[in-house]
């Protein structure tokens, strides 16, 4: 008796088989495929090695890298073999594909998630790649800033370094670095290069405002500081000359004294305007000793 061989079904088709043998819609996979086809590598900060592509759009592997998931997992999402990404993965996909708010909400609905679901903490808003670098920066002060200079995450060294400005937020500091600079009474004493720090921060904020015109947090910050600080209002109108990488290099900590740090600035194309600052003292310097002393003091606190 001859066996009948079923026809081959492509797992990448718009419909795949469900458990009961009924076809299922692959709306999530189709949506992901359509959104990546609209983005060029240059849109997300990726290069092509000078080679022209026959097909416009991002490749699956490129979206996987941007979203910090495996290429196999992302392929299963597009093919409909995986239909229920977790909220953090859905958020990473939305960031990787540069989705505006309405498209992000649609993605969450297709994944069976609440479109209004947001990270529970400021740290939850940080891109996973930046969090990985922050958590690995054991001998440095590391913190992540939003486009409006909110402190989204900070490691132990950064919290100790900014402890003179302690507040009530989860990072242990006033949650906005520009408000610290322009409104805290100790800021101009603490930041020994205050004019440099202020100019660099304003320059970066202005760039973020141009690149992210829909960011209401930036607009609210500028409005609030312009009303509360005549110095900020004047400097904002006049502009600034230098960038973020020159800011906050020398400070005078009330417990540890003078500390000088060299900063590296990290960004991720998927989250424009979000920056990780990692500051380290020169090995063997007086600043390194002060930094070690500050860390030891922190370890003694309950």
TrEMBL record:
<dbReference type="GO" id="GO:0003677">
    <property type="term" value="F:DNA binding"/>
</dbReference>
<feature type="domain" description="HTH cro/C1-type">
    <location>
        <begin position="57"/>
        <end position="104"/>
    </location>
</feature>
<dbReference type="Pfam" id="PF17765">
    <property type="entry name" value="MLTR_LBD"/>
</dbReference>
<dbReference type="InterPro" id="IPR001387">
    <property type="entry name" value="Cro/C1-type_HTH"/>
</dbReference>
<feature type="region of interest" description="Disordered">
    <location>
        <begin position="1"/>
        <end position="28"/>
    </location>
</feature>
<protein>
    <submittedName>
        <fullName>Transcriptional regulator</fullName>
    </submittedName>
</protein>
<dbReference type="InterPro" id="IPR041413">
    <property type="entry name" value="MLTR_LBD"/>
</dbReference>
<dbReference type="InterPro" id="IPR010982">
    <property type="entry name" value="Lambda_DNA-bd_dom_sf"/>
</dbReference>
<dbReference type="Pfam" id="PF13560">
    <property type="entry name" value="HTH_31"/>
</dbReference>
